[in-house]
Amino acid sequence: ATPLLSLKQGYSPLAVGMLMALFALTQVFLALPAGRYADRHGLRRPVGFSVIAATLGAGLAVAFPVFPVLCLAALLTGGATGSAAIALQRHVGRTARDATELKQMFSWFSIGPAISNFLGPLTAGVLIDHVGGFFGGQPGDLIGYRSAFLLMALLPLGSWLWIRGTPVLSIAVATQPGSRRAWDLLRDPMMRRLLLVNWFLSSCWDVHTFVLPILGHERGFSASVIGMLLGSFAVAATLVRLIMPWLAAHLREWVVISSAMLLTGVLFAVYPFMPTAWSMGVCSVLLGLVLGSVQPMIMS
Q1: How deeply is 158 buried, as exposed, middle or buried, from its count of CB atoms within 10 A (0-12, 13-18, 19+)?
Q2: Measuring CA to CA, which residue among 221, 58, 66 is closest to residue 151?
Q3: DSSP assignment of 38-87
Q4: pLDDT at residue 236 is higher than 50
Q5: DSSP class per residue in 142-178
Q6: What does the pLDDT look like over 153-200, one tens digit per residue?
Q7: Distance between CA 4 and CA 86 in Å, rounded?
Q8: Predicted pLDDT of residue 182
């Protein structure tokens, strides 16, 4: 909703790219503090604060759907999503009993964001296109965008309702103060390589999310069609993650990740030349299959 509204208001692709980057900016600075906070307090408290920030951010976009407020909403919702994901990943990782179960559990865990990436854009696109006309306005008017932001403000509250009954794990005992730092991980050559690959492939996912609305807007696609294209990407990522528990038991991580890097490069090379929504949809599905297989392997 935010890139489409910004383009509708006349902002350039550069401005939209900066707006989309703000969703990740807070996570850059919050990642290490959020991890330490989750170590001290477990699952519920970090997720609770994340729910408050996400609801506040999306709520501000409902009340003031202008570009500066959308930037603030991106900072709040992006930081909330990243902090909650760290707490959830820690919780999931601590419940695994062996390496195979760890890969399987992260495969199941990663289905959640994939489903969200389907429901969010598709539902937002339908609301943007149809709610305005229902209330006497025009399809794609500000009422539609406000309704999409309102739905996104309510969804985190559902997350909190579900997580309240999650069993509490014992809090990890901290090491001696100052004896270990997160930056010490960068001294490990294999960890540096893993981080680099993760950055490359995660950025490919985000580039697709950023470029697709711009391409669709330039070609006159409706918000529903753009949401459906983003949704098809997410459905493919979900489907491949459903079979990841089986693949995890039969394939090495480096085989999956190396293949994903090669195929992603090929698909990005041909994607801009796809002239119709159907052909772009095929590329979206293939990209979803490829990139959806990576995160569980990276995490394990």
Answers
A1: exposed
A2: 58
A3: HHHHTTHHHHHHHHHHHHHHHHHHHH--SHHHHHHHHHHHHHHHHHHHHH
A4: yes
A5: HHHHHHHHHHHHHHHHHHHHHHTTSPPPPPPPP-STT
A6: 999 998 888 888 777 766 554 445 555 676 777 788 888 888 888 888
A7: 29
A8: 67
Q: Which amino acid is at 131?
A: V
Nearest-CA neighbor of 2 among 47, 83, 64?
Answer: 64
Instruction: Output the six-digit token pair for 277.
Output: 């929504």
Q: CA geometry: angle at 71 spanning 128 and 139, to 5°? A: 15
Running DSSP on this structure, what letter comes out for residue 97? -
Per residue, the 3-state secondary structure of 169-214, as one string, reads CCCCCCCCCCCCCHHHHHHCHHHHHHHHHHHHHHHHHHHHHHHHHH
Tokens of 249: 């038991």
Contact 208, 267 (CB under 8 A): no
Q: Which of 221, 238, 240 is nearest to 281 (CA)?
A: 221
End-to-end CA distance of the chain: 33
Tell me the pTM: 0.76
Which tokens hold the place of 200?
Answer: 């490359």
Encoding tokens for residue 230?
């983003």
Host H or E run for residue 16: helix 13-41
**What gap in Å lies between CA 219 and CA 57, rounded to an integer?**
30
**Predicted local distance difference test score (pLDDT) of residue 267:** 92
> CA gyration radius for the chain?
20
3-state secondary structure of 101: helix
